[in-house]
Amino acid sequence: MLSRYPIKRNALLPLLHLAQQENGGWLSEESIKYVAEICEVSETHVEGVISFYTMYKLKKPGKYHLQICTCVPCCLVGGEELLEHTESKLGIHAGSTGDDGMFSIEEMECIGACSFAPAIIVNEDYHEKVNPESMDQLITDLRNTP
Amino acid sequence: MIEETLVLFQNIRNPSYDKSLKGYKKVGGFKALKKALKMKPEELVEVVKASGLRGRGGAGFPTGLKWSFMAKNTGKPSYLICNADESEPGTCKDRELMLKDPHHFLEGMMIGCYAINCKHGYIYVRGEYFPSIKSLNEAIDELYAAGLLGENALGKGKRLDLTVHTGAGAYICGEESALLDSLEGKRGHPRVKPPFPAVSGFNACPTTVNNVETLTCLPFIVNEGAEAFKDFGPENNAGTHLVSLSGHVEKPGVYEVRMDVTLKQIIYDLGGGIRGGKALKGVIPGGASSPVLTAKEIDVEYSFDALGKAGTMMGSAAVMVFDEDTDVVKLLHRITRFFNHESCGQCTPCREGTHWARLIVQDFLKGNGNERKMKRLHRVGGNMMGTTVCALGDAAAMPITSFVTKFPEEFEKYYTQAAA
Prior knowledge:
CATH superfamily of the largest domain in chain A: Glutaredoxin
Radius of gyration of chain B: 22 Å
Number of domains of chain B: 3
CATH topology of the largest domain in chain B: Rossmann fold
CATH class of the largest domain in chain A: Alpha Beta
Number of helices of chain A: 6
CATH superfamily of the largest domain in chain B: NADH-ubiquinone oxidoreductase 51kDa subunit
Number of strands of chain A: 4
Number of strands of chain B: 9
Distance between the termini of chain B: 47 Å
CATH class of the largest domain in chain B: Alpha Beta
Helix content of chain A: 40-55%
Number of helices of chain B: 18
CATH topology of the largest domain in chain A: Glutaredoxin
Low-confidence stretches of chain B: none
Helix content of chain B: 40-55%
Distance between the termini of chain A: 33 Å
Largest sheet of chain B: 5 strands, mixed
Largest sheet of chain A: 4 strands, mixed
Structural class of chain B: alpha/beta
Number of domains of chain A: 2
Oligomer: heterodimer
Strand content of chain B: 5-15%
Shape of chain B: globular
CATH architecture of the largest domain in chain B: 3-Layer(aba) Sandwich
Mean pLDDT of chain B: 96
Strand order of the largest sheet of chain B: 6-5-9-7-8
């Protein structure tokens, strides 16, 4: 990855993604230190970058991270209701993870699926035109996935 | 009844289209690049200038002119960076191109790289676009395997590399100088200009940043000529463009149209009208930052210039439609929440203004609105306009002032009812 960039620091964002992926979806102190060393920047610089972007996590998310968009186009067609429904269904609030570690919920700003709203991302997969019923089905399916 | 005009979407609309390199070549793919490589880069810049192509990312700046600003003979490498950060609320057009016809876009990107003497181009894709990132990486692997990228990509001994770079969730990184900071491995803070990127951009080298859709227009322009491109649409608004239609319409979707159709035709002919036979209340015509239009104002040509004259803007061509049942105050509250969340915090008017705007709109929702707060909203909006390093301050202010001006009764309803 470093070879794709003129200077090492340029690879910081993609390397953080990679580190997060390999660490089960979040960045530990060790992974931050490691990335800082590779990019030849201070750990403080890396922490500053992490805190700026919403996709880097300092806590372990659920096995299934439900990212529910409530931004303008999704909000117009039921995104907020979908978020509330999911929160009450799973008994957790946006920004938290359930006790069994299966699900976490995050309220998203625009995820760029506006013409297919309401839209959500589960880990890396988009699900579009989601309603409370299809959300229930999705949760059941995910629970039953071995 | 209008229909789509297919240039960018001609492959995507073909149900049997195979988006692999083989499939793209079968429909004439990479002929334009071959033709472009027979021209001098300066000639190519002139062709694009003559085509009247304007940037599709939001600002509508002439692409050929932007290229011509690139500093020459600096002894530093030149860079073409594609802005695929698509994060203006309502916009979902670039993802269609990257997902469903990646080679078409990549051919455009390669033509752009040749035009500005770029040896390594970067595609900055927003991090949430996992499927688009995968689609692009697969297509780029195919190009390397076929020798279309790498050692002799732009002729014998003329190397070209392309790299997909993933963002990590920040609206502001769609602003070109913030994007460059982000690409360099920093927090995405917009830069003070000048110097403009064409002089000092990525790693302080001459850089052009172009949008995905803008670059995807290039194969057509090279193949068919500047005049053919100009023939679509009115004077100064050349070519077809992609409109992301969302909200309360029967058939939301991404549609390709000429710029001489009206907003009304887009909503009623292509979008099938308002969902459930309801009446229209208003339209946000060009992304969340564009000033809102009322139902009476939609019979306007959907072009850069006509929308500008109508007091709004085309922006990224994201049309968000809302019907008679929509609570406009709640809608504005959602918009102010967005900008409050996405302000990078660098400039005081924007950091504080987006925060206070959200709180004041929230006051109305809680029954604590009044006339004084209406005026204060206006003032907060006004204080953000033109007072910040980048356009996010303006982007946050325009919806606030336009909503309050165009739907005052909706705000009044909240405090007169609360008083009663």
